Each structure stands twice: as C-alpha cells, then as structure tokens.
Amino acid sequence: MPTKHELMPALQKTFHALLQMLPIIFGMLLLTSILVTLFPREVITQLLGQGNLADSLVASGIGSIAAGHPIASYLVAGELLSAGAGLVAVTAFIVAWVTVGIVQLPAEAMLLGVRFALWRNLFCFLSSIAIAYLVAFTLKMIELT
Length: 145
Hints:
The protein is mainly α. 81% of the residues lie in helices and 0% in strands. Helix 4 (70-82) packs antiparallel against helix 5 (87-99) and helix 6 crosses helix 7 (114-141).
C-alpha cells in the first residue's frame, strides 16, 4: 500500500497531466460533433448503396473521421441499413467509426507516440474493410442475408 508521501506527488502529477490534456480532449469532442453534423444520413446512404469496394472505402473514410461510440453504432447501423445502404458499406463504416480516430489522432499521438498512433489507425482502417467483407461473406454463407 502506498504511503501518503508517495500518493500525493502521484496525484498531483496526474492532475497536472489531466489539465494539460483538457484542451485537446475538448477540441477533439468539438471537432467530432462538427464533423458528424456535416455528414447527414441521407448523404451517407447515397454514397453507400452500390455494393462495391468504393463503397467500403468511402464508408471507412467517413467512419474514420466521424468517430463515434460503440453503443450508438447499433442504432446508426440499423438506420443506414433501413435507408438502403449496403451491408459491406455499413459494416465498414461502423467498424471504422468505432476503431479509427482521425479526430483523436493528435491526442493519441501525444499520449502513445506518433508512430504507434499512425500505425494503429492505418491497421484499423484496413481491418474495417476486411471485416466488412468477412461479415457479408459469413452471413451469405449461413444464408442470413
């Protein structure tokens, strides 16, 4: 168990680090909110209805920028599917939306390093496309679509 003399300096360092990150966190949340409003559902569904590789690239790109919360992704996916967007595009969008964070990249780079942040985001972007096709293929194989 840490002593009071060890705990207080650690709490002070943590508090100062949090204060330094607040402008970045606030900016990230503000930018995310602005970007999400720039892409209304109607525009996204028009871009995601062809069922080709371009759809998944566009969807992953938009999802990477828009960045959202995992719980909300179920609602967004349902709305996009009901509006006529393809399963591959919706899956790519949602996976990128939850895993890739272009808006959060400055904060992530500051905390974890630029190289790690860039590689993680690139890997997640490419994975979102692969996962989208694997989901569609799997559902087709078990005849749920």
